[in-house]
Here is the input.
Amino acid sequence: MFCVYINEVLLLADGQKIDMMDDKTILQEAFTEMAPRYETLVDGELNRFWGWRYDQFINRLLEEVDIVDGLSVLDVATGTAMIPKKLIGRYGDSIRIVGLDITLAMLRRGKKLLDDPNVRLVCGSAMTMPYGTCSFDVVLCGLATHHMDIPVLISEIRRTLKPGGKLTIADVGGSAVWRMPIVRFFLKVMAFIYFLTVENAARAWAEADGVSNVLCAEDWANLLSQMGFKGVTVVELPSKFKWIPSPLLIKATRGG
Ligand SMILES: C[S@@+](CC[C@H](N)C(=O)[O-])C[C@H]1O[C@@H](n2cnc3c(N)ncnc32)[C@H](O)[C@@H]1O
Here is the structure.
């Protein structure tokens, strides 16, 4: 497990210095390249595929989040900290926010866009979160679950959420037909070719890889219930094209 607080010395949990560049995976390489233009890029992509503006999409996610004074919020895979930025805009310093992300360049841009004492940006993996059990009241995750091993992610979220704590996720969801290996393979190839053409090889690998992780609404509901969440709701958000996987909005409460 590693954990790096940006603007401080890069440290492993055991105190050794690390060189982030040597450790970069293809996903980190893709997001490092995207970081300087992330918001514009994602705005164009969401609009092209779903008919959503980026800003509108984050607002829709946050509409589902009940925040009261004093809560501690974890934004998993925070990227350039757009979710923390919106939360601070709405709730000011009445809440504490941690934004966790594995790509340092995304966090560095986030720090430039939002330098607020109530927001702590942390570089680390959501697969082994650098937090104790029952640390947060609310966990959010926007546009990122498909880049991760979802059962591991949910288990880490469950561990770090307090009992009764709330989880809200918004990300791409597949339809039931995606369960067929041949369909998934075809979509992976399509994603690879598309992102190689419009972006670059690292992005193409990262997005093709992400296709394997995408879950349909029913699988999300089953997984969250099996992993000890209650009051699970999964809503398909409106999308421009029927043949492109739609965005899903997922809400659940951690059981006791
Ligand atoms: C599409 S961006 C989403 C950023 C932000 N949540 C938003 O709504 O704009 C996906 C982010 O997931 C991060 N990410 C991918 N795998 C991760 C992991 N295992 N742990 C933490 N962050 C991860 C990437 O570095 C990237 O910043």
Residues 27, 31, 42, 77-79, 82-83, 100-103, 106, 125-127, 142-144, 147-148 surround S-adenosylmethionine (CB under 6 Å).
